[in-house]
Structure formats: C-alpha cells, structure tokens
Amino acid sequence: MDVSFLGGPQPQRGVGVVAPFDFALDRELWRWVPDDISLHLTRTPFVPVEVSLDLARLVSEHETLGEAVRALGAAEPQVLAYACTSGSFVGGIAGERAMCEAMRRAGELPSVTTSGALLDALADLGARRIALVTPYTRSVTESLEEYLAEAGITVVGRAYLGLTRHIWKVPYRDVADMARAAVGTCADALFISCTNLPTYDVIPQLEAELRMPVISANQVTMWAALARLGTRAVGPYQALLDPAARRQWPVPGRQAEQRLPELPEGQEGWA
User: Fold this and answer.
1) Which residues contact 153 (CB under 8 A, 6 or more apart)?
2) What is the pLDDT of residues 15-52, one digit of tens each?
3) Which stretch of DSSP H or E encloses residue 85?
4) How many whole angstroms separate alpha carbon 222 and alpha carbon 233?
C-alpha cells in the first residue's frame, strides 16, 4: 500500500528533560506540549534515599546533571529542562543558577529548571504573595519557602502532606483539599510544588473555584522550556498559559503581610 501521500512525519523540535530517578509523570508533561515538539526524557541514577533534602542534593549534583545532559545529546534537543522542584531550590537562587550553567556547559544549549521557571512564572503573573501546596515533609517545604523568600516572594498560606515516597499516587481530590486549606484572602496566586504530583486537570478547576492563578511544578517547567523555543505550552483555561483565562481576574491588591503560625516540631500537615 502506497502511503507516500501522507507526507510526514512532521519535523519536530526537541526538549531534553532531566528528571529524578523516581519521576513517574512522563504523560503529564506531554499534555502541555504542542504537536510539533517532542520530549526526550532521561533520569538521574537510582539512590536508595526517600524524598528529603538529602535526596534533593543527590539528584542535583553537577556531575550527575552533566552525564544526563550528555546522554540526551544523541536526540539533539534544542533546549534542556531539569524537572525537579526540590533538586533546583535546595541550593537557593545561586544553586539554581549554577545548575542551569552546568547544564548549559554540558549540552551547549539554553537550560531551565523547575524552580527557576517558578520565579519567572510568578513574575509574569505579577504575584508576590502566594499560597503554597506541597507533598513534602516540613523540612523540605520550609526549604522551598526560604528559596521563595530569597527571591522576594512571601508565602501567606501553606499546606503539605509529609510524604517521602509514592507522591505520584496522590489523587486530585487531595491536591484540591490542600489548595483550599492553604489559600487565604491575601494571596496573589497558588503554587503546587513537586513534578511528581499530578496537577494538569485540577488547575482549571481550582482557578475557577479560588478566583486566582494556579501554577504547578510541571506546568511552569514546560512553560519555560517551550518559551525558549519560541512556542507556547498547551493548557486550556490555565491562567499562566491562556490569556483569556488570565483576563477573568486581576492579581489581587496587596494586603498587609501576615505571618504564618509556627507548627509544633515534628508536626506535618496544614497551616
């Protein structure tokens, strides 16, 4: 059978993605990607450590990043993305910038990380006061808050699950419940952290319910990487990606800063 009339396949441009060894949401990343873009994923080597600050440091070592980027080189991507929030905020802003530079040197390509993309997305939305949702333990969540504070972002509400494994199994209803618990009256936006936490379908629902922009780790990673290619991520009814969705509500007026209540030592949960 002659199929020459079909033409194609259509030319593709590639995004090389470095993810931690336990990353389980490849399909979710693809949902933000237009048809003329391909994702090429590789993972960091396995280490017998649960989700923690120690693991974040291990999966973000420059030597590990360099090896992963060189492995991706055979697929000839045009941009590189490190898809891990904790691995890219654990070293602070200077550490995130050093990771981008290490990847750029190894692959000779523009590079982004999830935590760097987060700051870019908040700037794009004009959000300086945010509510925060994470699946992490208290210590990892506090490290993210320190990274945000270094960038001038104030966390005005938080909720976290205290998980150290199997984060990709968290259902949307739990993500939504945490979001409702975290959001108060003075947040400009909500950020849902961790690239292993499913968020694609829950973002429009939460934006409609909470009346504010909602962004997530995988969303901002793909948004930033695709922007380096001069194209837009696909996300109907998501304020970061859809101008019509963003016009539904302005960034809320700045209100008096609130201090988060301290949690008792060792307590995991919502505040």
Assistant:
1) 119, 122, 127, 128, 129, 130
2) 999 999 999 999 999 999 999 999 999 999 999 999 99
3) helix 85-89
4) 7
